[in-house]
Specification:
The two termini are about 30 Å apart. With about 220 residues, the protein is α/β, with parallel strands linked by helices. The longest helix is centred in the middle third of the chain and has 13 residues. The protein has 8 helices and 7 strands. The chain has a domain of about 150 residues: Rossmann fold, CATH 3.40.50. The strands form 2 sheets. Strands 1-7-6-2-3 form a 5-stranded parallel beta sheet. A two-stranded antiparallel sheet has the order 4-5.
Length: about 220
């Protein structure tokens, strides 16, 4: 659960209270109209259709994400899911049936960490009946080098052909609206690579649900 201080802060300051880019979720100037797109998405539109983020990476939930990912404190997944259920879900009830796919880890990284942090949060969400989670459909090959600290171009290059679909369940995404759930969005390269794969395999619409968004443009 969230402490009283963090809960009160999020009530007033989640990204849902601010103008954000409809497509990549980055915070916009207060002068921008609602439902606008940032300059980066106008110049080079990503493949995904929209992005919804709970809070800024530099905000009160960063510590919880780090404790979950790097210190294997699974209890923090409960608090993060609770925050999403309280402050994001009321804005996000899909009007059409959708599939929810967590961003995967490679099999090797999954063994090393012991869990996929995105799935640990996602499986605790209070999803509407219109949303069906699919945990094993989206898969990831192992990368020799971690791309956490890379710039946008290096991330794009390192992610080429990293993701693939399980051949037994891939057909389920055809003509479907798909939600991709991730813990952190930085440049958007990971989510864009996934969106390209999903649309190449017949997905109709791609929405991203993300816990934390950095201030780096998409």
């Amino acid at each position: 659960m969230l402490c009283e201080t963090c809960f009160s802060f999020l009530q007033q300051h989640t990204l849902f209270q601010y103008h954000t880019c409809l497509q990549c979720g980055i915070e916009l100037s207060a002068l921008k109209p609602c439902h606008a797109r940032c300059q980066s998405c106008q110049d080079a539109p990503p493949t995904f259709d929209q992005t919804h983020c709970l809070d800024r990476y530099e905000g009160v939930l960063q510590h919880a994400i780090h404790q979950l990912k790097y210190h294997k404190r699974l209890a923090f997944a409960h608090g993060l899911a609770h925050a999403w259920n309280q402050f994001a879900m009321p804005h996000l009830t899909p009007t059409e049936p959708s599939l929810l796919l967590p961003v995967p880890l490679s099999d090797l990284k999954l063994v090393r960490r012991g869990f996929n942090q995105s799935w640990e949060i996602a499986r605790r969400l209070q999803l509407p009946h219109t949303v069906k989670p699919l945990i094993h459909t989206l898969r990831r090959s192992h990368q020799a080098h971690d791309q956490v600290h890379g710039d946008r171009l290096s991330r794009q290059l390192s992610l080429r052909n990293v993701f693939y679909l399980d051949r037994h369940t891939a057909k389920q995404i055809r003509n479907q609206s798909v939600i991709v759930f991730d813990d952190v969005m930085t440049t958007g390269s990971t989510l864009n690579e996934i969106a390209q794969l999903l649309k190449e395999n017949g997905a109709r619409k791609i929405s991203n649900w993300v816990i934390l968004r950095t201030s780096t443009p998409n």
